[in-house]
Amino acid sequence: MKTYTPPVSEIKRKWFVIDAESKILGRLATRVAGLLMGKGKPHFTPHLDVGDFVIVINAEKVMLSGKKQDTKTYYHYSGYPGGLKSVSFSKYLKEKPEELLSQAVWGMLPKNRLGRKMLSKLFVYRGAEHPHQAQKPEPLKL
User: Fold this and answer.
1) Nearest to 43 by CA among 15, 4, 16, 1
2) In a domain, 43, yes or no
3) Contact by Cβ (8 Å): 72, 64
4) pLDDT number for residue 129
5) Is the pLDDT of residue 12 over 90?
6) Are 62 and 93 in contact (CB under 8 A)?
7) pLDDT per residue over 111-131, tens digit each?
């Protein structure tokens, strides 16, 4: 028996809009990563991009569970001596909520060309407005 691989013409992509208000960051990122990969589709293939487009609105209202809202710290190392930078979650959320959510989703995608292609289908916005009304995105409840 041969494995079925869907041709590009058969891959149908939908647009989803997700409201991140009062959602847990990790749980939201997991669900978004699954949609970007196409995990819920019957013709999911690990080596093909069969996922959907995802729009996340209200990114500045995302939360963490427990005491992590106050204690979680993100680190970045430049590679130089003394180049370790740290930013608290609350400061990161205030300054760059779009990047915070994108980084959380990127951590759950493959680290190769296919993963970068999947991440390009993610659109994150700080407020409730987005410029993708022409695509008629379906609201998705989590």
Assistant:
1) 4
2) yes
3) yes
4) 95
5) yes
6) yes
7) 999 999 999 999 999 999 999
Instruction: Output the pLDDT for position 123.
Output: 98
Range of the domain at 47: 13-64+96-139
φ, ψ for residue 15 (rounded to 5)?
A: -115, 130
Tell whether 126 is covered by a domain: yes
State the amino acid at position 128 in one-letter form.
A
Return the pLDDT at 3: 81
pLDDT tens-digit profile of 19-44?
999 999 999 999 999 999 999 999 89
Number of domains comprising the chain:
1
Domain with residue 36: its CATH number is 3.90.1180.10
- Between 97-106 and 25-37, two packed helices, what is the crossing angle to 10 degrees? 60
Residue 112 in tokens: 């190769």
Query: What pLDDT score does 8 carry?
Result: 87
